[in-house]
Amino acid sequence: FCGQVSNAVSSFVDSFVDFIVGGQILSKHAQSSANSFHPAAGAGGEARNHGGDSGMGIVTRIPAVERLVAIGDIHGDLAKTRESLRIAGVVDEDDRWIGGKTVVVQVGDVLDRGGQELKVLYLLERLKGEAQRHGGDLHIMNGNHEVMNIEGDFRYATKEALDEFSAWAQWYRRGQALKERCHGLGRQPDAFRNVRKSIPDGVRARYAALRPGGPISSRFLAHHPTILIVGSTVFAHGGILPSHLDYGLEKINAEVRDWIQGRKGRQAPGYLRGKDAVVWARQYSIPVESLCDCKLLDEVLTGISGASRMVVGHTIQAPFGINSACQNQVFRVDVGMSSGCANTAPEVLEIRHDTVVRVLS
């Protein structure tokens, strides 16, 4: 009997664990992503995800939309995330999507500095599904802190965040054990394979979950774009430089996905590392406008067909809030809202009909 209903059992277990860990029930598609984690020993200690579909493309460009909203760095602050979404007018008091066909782009850095990273990821993933069912969408991008954590750099992880991952590990293991008791599902993958037992529990859980091919990185982060273009607006966490254009924006998105899924080794690709990386660059985001490299920005925008502006995060703009530079060719949306950063009031950027831009607060 168990073998005949193995898929139903697996789905039920995943939903139960999702609700306990993230407080959300995710769509069947998101659950299938959870089931695609199949690690094998890999060079450098990564868990290679042979179950994911490397052919699943990351969207790099979508047409202009009637209403586009940009949200800056979140850094594990669930309350500020909810407040930002309400300011944007896309969720109600029960965190249900009411944004219709609005497209929301969160520019990365969901991880680090705050204690509710997983709950934020689960909330955004659930809202993405709801938005798509109403003709809208929600894109969560990868920032430098996602890259750091996938590489095992946890210097900005808080105690509360490590505790959250410890709790995830407990429920994840229980879920896997329940599946193994159902003979039709067979032996489940071990997310902790090749992870030293001597390191502290929270760090061990975080490493297992977020390393290349890990269950959280594969399920969530691997499907997030590093570069996104919506109509004439270009999004990147740090900024796009001519070298990134020369390499290829679609190629960057595809290779980052493959790296996160555990197909490209443990170390991030070069364009994700260093001061000129697409997730680390600050050439366009230093709050003093005279220090913004407008000539370089114009060169990049000219090199992207139809592009007229760039939206970046990464560099906290407090006390100025969301602002622009280079004659509105760049908008900087990291206001430092997380309680782990500047703890400022949230603001979001709204773009209507691909032309009219304003700040909502």
From TrEMBL:
It comes from the Eukaryota. InterPro entries: Calcineurin-like_PHP, Metallo-depent_PP-like. It holds the Pfam family Metallophos. Residues 67-173 form the Calcineurin-like phosphoesterase domain. One of its GO terms (cellular component) is cytosol. GO terms for molecular function: phosphatase activity. This is Calcineurin-like phosphoesterase domain-containing protein. It comes from Selaginella moellendorffii (Spikemoss).
